[in-house]
Amino acid sequence: MATRREQKQQNNYKKALCANSGREAKASISIEDTDNSPEPTPPMEANTETSAILAAITDLSKKMDDRFNNLETSLQTMQATLTDHDDRISTLEAAGSNHDAKLTQLKQQWRQLEENHKLLQHKVIDLEARSRRQNIKMVGLPEKGNNPVDFCVSFLRDLLGPAHFPTPIEVDRAHRLGQPSDVGGRPRVMIARIHSFRVKEKILRLARENTPLTYDGRRIHIFPDFPAETLKRRQPFEEVRKKFKEAGMRTGFLYPARLRVTKGANIDKVFNTPEDADRFLLSYRATRQ
């Protein structure tokens, strides 16, 4: 027990010595710091340095104010420019919207005008075709005589047979197409208007039945007179017409451009397009094989 008490006393003694030495060290440091501190600055020198610092701060503040004022002026100018641009863009957008509305209206009017144009064109072609209903077109007819009407009356009667026309054919007018040809050249086409539509149909029927027609050793063709637009619509059927003729069938057109194919009493077909006619011909040939 005595030994433990002695050890405890020794430990307390060591702690006291350490604490005392620490206080002495701090005291010595404080004394050294006090001895090394700078000497106080005289009052006049301190005022001069303070004035210089204040002057530098004032000058710097003035410069910063000037720069901020310039920056503010630039920003105001930029803001005014942006406002002006915004107004212009708004005006352009409004004008663009107005133009779009006008374009939409113009497109609608254009579609309506296009429909009216097609309708009027169809009517004009129909009126032209009706005005030509009593016309016949003669190709290969020699250019004889000075009076086309009288020549046409005698020519048709002699070509198709006087027995078919107990009374003279009444021709309202007749003329040649184009400029006069050279001597010995190809004769111009003659157009003749027959006074009676029934007589005109009779002439065309007799011309088909008596094909080929010849006059003064020349081959003569007589056709109905149609507008160019109608002939253009019939042009795509030419190739398939040749095929039908090779197959021994008769072909003709129904106004304005429908192909009619006949063969005896068994075949009597009407086609609106060349493709339909070609398909029928293929099926016909397949059944014949």
Automatic annotation (TrEMBL):
Transmembrane segments: none annotated. Signal peptide: none annotated. The keyword Cell inner membrane does not apply. Residues 1-48 are annotated as: Disordered. The keyword NADP does not apply. Keywords: Coiled coil. Residues 103-130 form a coiled coil. PANTHER family: L1 TRANSPOSABLE ELEMENT-RELATED. This is L1 transposable element RRM domain-containing protein. It comes from Amphilophus citrinellus. The lineage of its organism: Eukaryota, Metazoa, Chordata, Craniata, Vertebrata.
